[in-house]
Design brief:
- By secondary structure, this protein is an alpha/beta fold.
- The chain folds into three domains: about 325 residues, Aconitase, domain 3, CATH 3.30.499.10; about 210 residues, 2-Layer Sandwich (Aconitase, domain 3); about 220 residues, Alpha-Beta Barrel (Aconitase, domain 4), CATH 3.20.19.10.
- Helix content is about 35%, strand content about 15%.
- It has 30 helices and 32 strands.
- The strands form ten sheets. Strands 24-27-28-29-32-31-30 form a seven-stranded mixed β-barrel. A five-stranded parallel sheet has the order 4-3-2-7-8, sandwiched between helices.
- The chain is globular.
- Its main location: cytoplasm.
- It comes from Haliaeetus albicilla (White-tailed sea-eagle).
- Belongs to the aconitase/IPM isomerase family.
């Protein structure tokens, strides 16, 4: 068996209770070779990790569940997580200050001040709920802390050993697979069910063996390797599959390299990318503070249950569903963009590729700029000096926490490049929003101890705090003069960041081209000030004495990197982190919070509100109710992401959420972000489908608008949904292929549910999102192969009725009747009896909560 399947097999045996996990489940996994992709199997992870943005609604739901259980005559004290759960409070960071000295301390102070209310709620949660650990603020982001501090590799509970495994509410949870820990991100709804003792149900996956051979070029960083592997695996169609790495090239990768590669797997659609534990893993764990006795037990156990990988052994490889071969020696430096992570561009082709994007029609790459305007220059005054903006100018450059901080080599490369650049006399233009937001203090530690942090600071890359920032839209606003110049000149301004997501408009609504790059390339492009540069033939800028400085003049060699890494990235960093974790911080320690069994809801609060999900807590399942004469709330196309659906980033002043907060007496300065307000269903419902790039076919252009057909009005999506609900009219959504792509987000399901959406009719779904829809009580319906609204002659202006039979079965066909008289068939995408049961109870949370 592939090593990843062995972990599933061990879990099924250990947790077999004849109800949630049956003997047949274990036997199906054992017979993986013939049963793969044909059966559903349960998986009970060893633990759960929550981050703040999705942790807040999860804990609010737990508080609401206690309320509902009390109202139904149960004992609310019984409502606790059954699975060990860790919640990281400061996973996400809003940047207010990006220039020294207004950086880390002030950003942390602002975060603590504006989020005091939700921090008090977290503190209450830590006091009253059993089996949950709250990781205090100012520590680090969820997947980074999970990797550096929470990971056990092997669990030891009362002298019983079993493999560490984890699910969490962050798509980057897959990072831990680089340590040999099976883990992936699931939706908040599924995570809450796991916290309450339910297994994760998944189709027994195909496992793609990815054979790595050769060695990468000295100029190729881990990010280049990641993006190259992303391209290969995306082309190999690994969506919904496990990927497992093997081959001679694997032993040449450090654990930092492996975690960076594993972290990117959601971007190519795999459930996870697994690197079994080997000698490289054990060596890494030794340096991070695992004591010798524990490592010896770990190694002996993993070898005893055949979960230890020995690349020096001549034993035959596991049998994989398919094998993808990748030669590391063929990998050269790339960036990805300008709108999608899968669109890779060789760095030596960047200038010509951007020019081609200007020429191309508007779409996934093109901007359709008239030839006569492609060389337009817009002069702008900033801080007493005149600068010239043109197409390709860089206005945001961010070394962010998403993927790179887990790999010291790429972060140190950025620092060493900055050092050489400053010493050569190069600078970054002051209007460029530069920032450095690592995932944990460990990164700051080694950047500081290696002596490169001051040089990053001199180029504007100040440490602004620890957590997700730029890539979720939390960057500091661009200077007003720069924004105005970009808009007035219709300039295609660029952002360059070392993250994983670059959807158009995500960083800032006036920054239309966004490129993903390695940290040293982010710094290099910031110095150049434009993406329209050929690094091989054009200088980055002019240094001291008027000398032209080229990229090759300041690019650090592998030998330099290795030397600095050996001297600075040592076990003391992990020791310091662990001490910090155990000590906490003064503000958190002094924060007061109630200790009552039930949370004392404040009706005036705009952060924490008791949601309505458990208002109709069902003790028994009910027959699915028919959907009668439903209007279409939105008619969407292909590749609608959870970014389009779920509220994220800043709250636009003209949005429905802004109107709500204004009516509550708040000023725009006090709006905070959607992520910070995920504990308030009123804000989140208004922010659902509020993305400025939402393309509703009823409107014909990107805008968070739709048509309320009974009145004929064009309204915000929330306002139209509110009118439908007041009129007692159900609504559905029409969509194309791959509905629900991107990060798993509970509010991508909860939001539509609270908007009154009863069903989604799409050509295909992203699997995790489809499960979320079922988990909240929305029916995922799929058009028959080859059919879609267009082929069926539907305009979306019809009303639709769906009749559910009393007894549903997995994958059954249902009839949909349009008000025009047309009848067509759709597939009810329930994959197993458990999903049908959850749907009948009105979602997984109601199903689990009923036992209390």
């Amino acid at each position: 068996l592939p090593y990843s399947i062995r972990v599933l097999f061990e879990s099924s045996i250990r947790n077999c209770d004849g109800f949630l996990v049956k003997e047949t489940d274990a036997m199906n996994i054992l017979d993986w070779k013939t049963k793969q992709n044909n059966v559903e199997v349960p998986f009970c992870p060893a633990r759960v990790v929550l981050q703040d943005f999705t942790g807040i609604p999860a804990m609010v739901d737990f508080a609401a569940m206690r309320e509902a259980v009390r109202n139904a005559g149960g004992d609310p004290v019984r409502v606790n997580p059954a699975c060990p759960t860790d919640l990281t409070v400061d996973h996400s960071l809003q940047i207010d200050f990006s220039k020294w000295p207004e950086t880390v301390l002030k950003n942390q102070e602002m975060e603590f001040g504006r989020n005091r209310e939700r921090l008090q709620f977290f503190k209450w949660s830590s006091k009253v709920f059993k089996n949950i650990s709250i990781i205090p603020p100012e520590t680090g982001m969820a997947h980074q802390v999970n990797l550096e501090y929470l990971s056990r590799v092997v669990f030891e509970v009362k002298d019983f050993l079993y493999p560490d495994s984890v699910v969490g509410t962050d798509s980057h949870m897959t990072m831990v697979n680089g340590l040999g820990i099976l883990g992936w991100g699931v939706g908040g709804i599924e995570t809450e069910a796991v916290m309450l003792g339910m297994p994760v149900t998944l189709t027994l996956p195909e496992v793609v063996g990815c054979e790595l051979t050769g060695a990468a070029s000295p100029l190729a960083t881990s990010i280049d390797i990641v993006l190259s592997i992303t391209k290969h695996l995306r082309q190999a169609d690994v969506a919904g599959k496990f990927v497992e790495f093997f081959g001679s090239g694997v032993s040449q990768l450090s654990v930092a390299d492996r975690t960076t590669i594993a972290n990117m797997c959601p971007e190519y659609g795999a459930i996870l990318s697994f690197f079994p534990v080997d000698n490289v893993t054990l060596k890494h764990l030794k340096h991070t503070g695992f004591d010798k006795a524990k490592l010896e037990v770990m190694e002996a156990y993993l070898k005893a249950v055949k979960l230890f990988r020995n690349y020096e052994s001549s034993s035959r490889e596991p049998e994989y569903s398919q094998v993808v071969q990748i030669s590391l020696s063929s990998i050269i430096p790339y960036v990805s963009g300008p709108k999608r992570s899968q669109d890779r561009v060789a760095v030596n082709n960047m200038k010509s590729d951007f020019q081609a994007c200007l020429n191309e029609k508007s779409g996934v790459k093109g901007f359709q700029i008239a030839v006569e305007k492609q060389n337009d220059i817009v002069p702008v005054q900033y801080e007493g000096n005149e600068y010239k903006l043109s197409h390709g100018c860089i206005v945001i450059a961010a070394v962010i926490s998403c993927t790179n901080n887990c790999n010291p080599s790429v972060m140190l490369a950025a620092g060493l490049l900055a050092k050489k650049a400053v010493e050569a006399g190069l600078v970054v233009k002051p209007y460029i929003r530069t920032s450095l937001s690592p995932g944990s203090g460990m990164v700051t530690h080694y950047l500081s101890s290696s002596g490169v942090l001051p040089y990053l600071s001199k180029l504007g890359f100040e440490v602004v705090g620890y957590g997700c920032s730029t890539c979720v839209g939390n960057t500091a606003p661009l200077p007003e003069a720069i924004r105005n110049a970009i808009k007035q000149g219709d300039i295609i301004a660029c952002g360059v960041l070392s993250g994983t997501k670059n959807f158009e408009g995500r960083l800032c609504d006036c920054v239309r081209a966004n490129y993903l790059a390695s940290p040293p390339l982010v710094v290099a492009y910031a110095i150049a000030g434009t993406v329209r540069i050929d690094f091989e033939t054009e200088p980055l800028g002019t240094g001291f004495n008027g000398k032209s400085i080229y990229l090759q003049d300041i690019w650090p060699t592998r030998k330099e990197l290795h030397t600095v890494e050996e001297e600075c990235v040592i076990s003391s960093m992990f020791k310091e982190l662990k001490e910090k974790m155990e000590k906490g911080n003064k503000r958190w320690n002094l924060l007061e919070a109630p200790e009552s069994t039930l949370f004392p809801w404040d009706l005036k609060s705009t952060y924490i509100r008791c949601p309505s999900f458990f208002d109709k807590l069902a003790k028994e399942p009910v027959s699915p109710q028919p959907i009668e004469n439903a209007h279409v709330l939105l008619y969407l196309g292909d590749s609608v992401t959870t970014d389009h659906i779920s509220p994220a980033g800043s709250i636009a002043r003209s949005s429905a959420a802004a109107k709500y907060l204004t009516n509550k007496g708040l000023t725009p300065r006090e709006f905070n972000s959607y992520g910070a307000r995920r504990g308030n269903d009123a804000v989140m419902t208004r922010g659902t489908f509020a993305n400025i790039k939402l393309l509703n076919k009823f409107i014909g252009k990107p805008a968070p608008k739709t048509i309320h057909f009974p009145s004929g009005q064009t309204l915000d999506v929330f306002e139209a949904a509110e009118l439908y609900q007041k009129g007692g009219i159900p609504v559905i959504i029409l969509a194309g292929k791959k509905y629900g792509l991107g990060s798993s987000r509970d509010w991508a399901a909860k939001g539509p549910f609270l908007l009154g959406v009863k069903a989604v009719l799409a050509e295909s779904y992203e699997k995790v999102h489809k499960s979320q829809l079922i988990g909240i009580g929305i029916a995922p319906l799929q058009f028959l192969p080859g059919e879609n609204p267009s082929t069926l002659g539907l305009t979306g202006r019809e009303q639709f009725s769906v009749l559910f039979p009393p007894e549903l079965s997995p994958g059954m066909t249902l009839d949909v009747k349009a008000s025009t008289g047309k009848v067509f068939s759709v597939i009810a995408l329930f994959e197993n009896d458990m999903e049908i049961t959850l749907y009948k109870y009105g979602g997984s949370l109601n199903f689990v909560a009923r036992r209390f």
